[in-house]
Write a structure and sequence with these properties.
By secondary structure, the chain is mainly alpha-helical. It has one domain (2-117). It is built from 4 helices and no strands. Helix 1 (2-29) packs antiparallel against helix 2 (33-58) and helix 2 packs antiparallel against helix 3. It is flat, with a radius of gyration of 22 Å.
């Protein structure tokens, strides 16, 4: 039984390490931000999940299982959202920040949406807090 667990441990560790390596290679080698974000989130998340399973197989206790599953859940919930937000912010900054799409990009849905709306990508305005009367609350550091 120990031989089977050791074999599974080796398989999960090698597969997880391989996926993390592929994610790192994708971040270094791919031509533009959306592709880099895709590589880092997909392969990186899968790699971390496989390594978490290997850690559980090494130390099979309830405490380690709980921590490994919390790690997996956290990665599944946060990595795609963070990558989406960073990719969208880099696209919105565009030429100002030196971020461009790869020349081989065939479909640019944001560009098509902007043309349909007739302007640049919409900017999110800062929301100012309001007091109970509905007036804007003033910051203590700003002059009245």
């Amino acid at each position: 039984m120990n031989a089977i667990i050791d074999l599974l441990l080796i398989v999960f560790l090698l597969a997880g390490t391989g996926f993390v390596f592929i994610a790192a290679l994708g971040v270094v080698r791919l031509p533009d931000v959306p592709m880099r974000m895709h590589a880092s989130t997909k392969a990186g998340t899968l790699g971390v999940m496989l390594i978490a399973v290997a850690v559980f197989l090494t130390y099979p206790t309830l405490s380690i299982f709980t921590r490994a599953m919390a790690l997996v859940l956290f990665m599944l919930l946060t990595a795609p959202v963070a990558a989406h937000m960073m990719g969208r912010a880099s696209y919105a900054s565009g030429e100002r920040m030196g971020v461009t799409l790869w020349e081989g990009t065939v479909i640019d849905q944001f560009k098509e949406d902007r043309k349909a709306e007739g302007g640049p990508m919409p900017q999110v305005a800062a929301v100012r807090p309001q007091n109970a009367d509905g007036d804007e609350a003033r910051d203590a550091s700003s002059p009245s």
